From TrEMBL:
InterPro entries: RNA_pol_sigma-70-like, RNA_pol_sigma-70_dom, RNA_pol_sigma70_r2, RNA_pol_sigma70_r4_t2, RNA_pol_sigma_r2, RNA_pol_sigma_r3/r4-like, WH-like_DNA-bd_sf. It comes from the Bacteria. GO terms for molecular function: DNA binding; sigma factor activity. This is Sigma-70 family RNA polymerase sigma factor. Keywords: Sigma factor, Transcription, Transcription regulation. The keyword Transferase does not apply. It comes from Paenibacillus hemerocallicola. Residues 15-81 form the RNA polymerase sigma-70 region domain.
């Protein structure tokens, strides 16, 4: 019973410490604040219900991120046909508005990447996870993660160059 209480305490601490990052990770998949909050809530529930599957407290952060990624992907599969966009995102795409988000080209280029590549980019550069942690989150080999990261960066570079060429003409 003590181990269970200790685990729950560590999990609550992990969730509290990384709540903004976890929300941002879920949002990067669904692009809707309410859905991202639902995903975070479902992920917390899944983490508490599957507490016996965690082998060590040291890997709790990557274990919880894995739950969030999988819950996000499940959500996307279930809601494949429906594309809900919140008001802030909708306003940023309307013509004539000044870009509030200066890296809108990067955001669009990221959105166009296949999920396996976007996930690696988000976890590495937005969530600041190490390659080893990303491999744990995605249940992949470290070399696979490195390859995907390299390929994703190359695809982003090509997309960003194409966008800048379009703007020049």
């Amino acid at each position: 019973m003590t181990i269970n209480k200790q685990f729950k305490s560590l999990l609550v601490h992990c969730i509290t410490e990384h709540k903004e990052n976890v929300y941002r990770l879920a949002y990067s998949y669904v692009k809707n604040s309410e859905d991202a909050l639902d995903i975070v809530q479902d992920s917390i529930q899944k983490a508490f219900s599957s507490s016996g599957k965690l082998k060590s407290a040291e890997s709790m952060k990557s274990w919880f991120y894995k739950i969030v990624v999988n819950t996000s992907l499940d959500f996307l599969r279930k809601h494949k046909k429906i594309q809900v966009v919140d008001e802030n995102t909708l306003e940023s795409y309307q013509p004539g508005n000044v870009d509030v988000y200066q890296d809108i080209d990067l955001e669009r280029a990221l959105d166009e990447l296949p999920t396996i590549y976007r996930t690696v980019i988000v976890l590495r550069y937005f969530e600041d996870l190490k390659i080893e942690e990303i491999a744990n989150v995605l249940s992949e080999n470290m070399n696979t993660v490195k390859t995907r990261l390299y390929q994703a960066l190359r695809m982003l570079r090509v997309k960003m160059v194409d966008e800048s060429l379009k703007e020049e003409t």
